[in-house]
Specification:
The longest helix is centred in the last third of the chain and has 23 residues. The chain has six helices and eleven strands. The strands form five sheets. It has a three-stranded mixed β-sheet with strand order 7-9-8, with no helix packed on it. Strands 1-4 form a two-stranded antiparallel ribbon. A two-stranded antiparallel ribbon has the order 2-3. The chain has two domains: 124 residues, no CATH class; 49 residues, no CATH class. It is 43% helix and 18% strand. The chain is of the alpha+beta class.
């Protein structure tokens, strides 16, 4: 990946010999060794994941494949077969670094008819829309659904604030804070 040895050593030492305990409704467990992963809440976790993701995407060969149509620097595949090939490459490269593609979280959205997909005997769900970066993406490209959804979210927040805004027990000065 091109990470200097001294940084790799630093990270290994940071996470070496880590132990944890789990608190449950019945009390706490005994201390146990953490074999894989990072500490919950560690600020390095997102950075380390991004390094892995970048490595996987580079090794998948998306740029070299030149598959599909490029929109906003992203490849949108023209054929179902191209997409299947790239998804399988992504799965293989992920497994090489110890990550597993979660088929239950993997979705397919197409602008036209599509056949059912299976990966390792599991069917990949086909959807007509999904939420990406807080925006609703639809197969037909219609954004009116997203506008309505955002208006409803705003209305819900205002409804929750209604009791505070109309309360006679809270002064105007307290409301402005």
């Amino acid at each position: 990946m091109g990470i200097p040895d001294h940084l790799t050593c630093l990270l290994k030492n940071l996470y070496a010999d880590q132990e944890a305990i789990v608190r449950t409704g019945d009390g706490t467990t005994h201390w146990f060794q953490i074999g894989k992963g990072v500490c919950q809440g560690c600020i390095l976790s997102p950075c380390l994941f991004n390094l892995y993701a970048e490595y996987i995407m580079r090794n998948t060969g998306l740029e070299e494949a030149q598959a599909g149509i490029k929109i906003a620097a992203k490849n949108i595949n023209k054929s179902e077969e191209e997409t299947k090939i790239l998804l399988m490459k992504l799965k293989e490269e992920s497994e090489k670094v110890g990550l597993k593609l979660n088929i239950q979280k993997t979705k397919i959205m197409a602008s036209g008819p599509i056949t059912s997909w299976e990966i390792d005997g599991e069917t990949v769900e086909t959807v007509s829309d999904f939420i990406f970066l807080h925006s609703k993406i639809t197969a037909d490209g219609d954004c009116s659904h997203d506008i309505k959804r955002r208006l409803l979210l705003g209305r819900k927040v205002m409804t929750n604030l209604d009791s505070i805004l109309k309360s006679r027990d809270i002064t105007c000065q307290q409301r402005s804070v």
